[in-house]
Task: structure prediction
Amino acid sequence: MRYIYFVGTAGSGKSSLIYAFQEWLTLQGLDSITVNLDPGVENIPYEPDVDIRDWVRVDDVMEAYGLGPNGAQVVAADLMAVNAKDLAESLEKFRTNYVLVDTPGQIELFAFRQSSDVIMEELGKEDACLVFLADPNLCRSPSGFISSIMLAATVHFRFNVPFLTVLSKSDLLKEDELEAVVGWSESSDALYDALLDKVDSRSLLSSELFKALETIGAYRRVTPVSAAEPSGLEDIYDLVQEVFAGGEDLTSD
Result:
């Protein structure tokens, strides 16, 4: 089984994209299952095959520890590590091509907690990749695009597994905005020129940060996707194939 972790900020559309991507995989004759790793989520558009809420729920943590919602989210995220082995054993019952993993809505609860490392190691880090969802509202401006690249690079360095970046909810962008964002991701010169069009302290700082990200190899093309249209799902599949099978289709094993 290959594990695809969908990671992004709150509201970036992780659950919706997983739902759309699983439907697309099914139409291609490829089997997949879904895993919910958000102990605080109330509504998701799919029925998870394995759900961390069977072991840890934010509401229960609030009651047990006398915590507010934010504190309970942090404690619940850490408690997931305690149940990592049970999670892995639940997944062993399935034979499938892909495991689509829905991470917590608040990115810091997955990207910056030790529990996520424990879970990935337990499930098999060598068979994992990350799909990072860049928020279109943040990426509209050159400085916002740089901020998104920085966040993606931080997550990548944190886990050190194969990494893909997609521009989620691309249907929310106007055509010229979408062209600009894709252009910035394809051409460092285009992004640098856009940053310098507005010469102020923020743009100058962004340009220096951009140079640093480019130097360390964190600058990468973003692929527009939309769960609503849907669009870009085949591109995600192609990118995943490059990671796991050198571009060849996977079959159940």
About this structure: The mean pLDDT is 88. The first strand starts at residue 2 and ends at 8.
